[in-house]
Please model this.
Amino acid sequence: MWNLGIGLTIDSQFVRLKGVVNPATMEQETLRLRFTTFHIQAGYGFFDGQLILGGGLRIFRQRAFQSNRIVSDGDVYTTLGLGAEVGLMFRPHQKRWSLGASLFPTISTGVGTKGNITPDPDGNIVVGDFFLPRSTKIPTTGSVGFSYQFGPRPPNPPWVSAGALAADDLERLKRRKQAAKEREQEEIAAVRARGGPDVEICVQAVEQRYAKKYARIKQSRKETKKVAWDMLRKQYRWGWPRRYYLLTADLWFNGRVDNAVGVESLLFQTVQRSGEKITVSPRLGFETEVVPTRMKIRAGTYLEPTRFAQSSLRVHGTLGVDISLFKWNVFGLWPDDYRWQFTTALDVSRKYVSLSFGIGGWY
Model:
């Protein structure tokens, strides 16, 4: 049984600055910056899924262009960098605890200028009176985490495939097919032994008759696996006790970056050094299903260490809610019992509020 998974994640950040003079036209336009990171990932489960190792490629791309429209008329400069990411999770079967860790090594990029924009004698890239970065660097980041689950819901259940659940029925179908092949060979041998001018026509008739039997057996295998898969989905989603209480804790760190400024300094055009020391962020979280099969809530807190010398850390409080909505197979693309959910999350701190919404699958 394969325990392989693949994924693609895209993170984007957009910045818009109005009133920057375009040196080509000497008119004021909007300077737009786009920071995009592509994560191409793959993971594999070992020891029946108890140890999961993952890794991937990060592609970081930054663009800057001047335009009063969202679409670029030509980039002022572009940058591209490559990096790696790795992670692991250890979740022993039937144990209430699990461990995890991740590492994202540094990504460094240079800048390629285009058009009429060239570095000045000091190497600065200036558009009008606006200084742009000469290079971009994402520091090394990583984390280690721990979780513990209370409640009657089975913790860290082993994965059971549809083939394993229906193994006896599939074995019977396999024997039926093998027996049919033996009978087919016997009948063909008998036809050839009898001989006659129409022997090949008779052989084809036997083969066609058994081809229909093989097609029925193949369809039976497909239906058997589907029934087993539906049983597994119902067991995982609705058959087990839904009540659980999950506690999580992890520790994130960000590495040093020499002679750097943050995005905030870029926006305000001030030199405020960022990333001069390693920072650590402890985080705590809690999740439970308050209304079985209908609503989950999660809450947590974490410390946001400052990356700047002239500021202080902030304490964040977080809250999230998942609400079960309805079943929909998306015109047959998803399983018939696939249930959708509405998700919202809130992150609050001093001079900071973030609110997000989403639609996804209920599990």
Remarks:
- The chain has a mean pLDDT of 83.
- The helical segments are 162-165, 167-194, 199-239, 263-268.
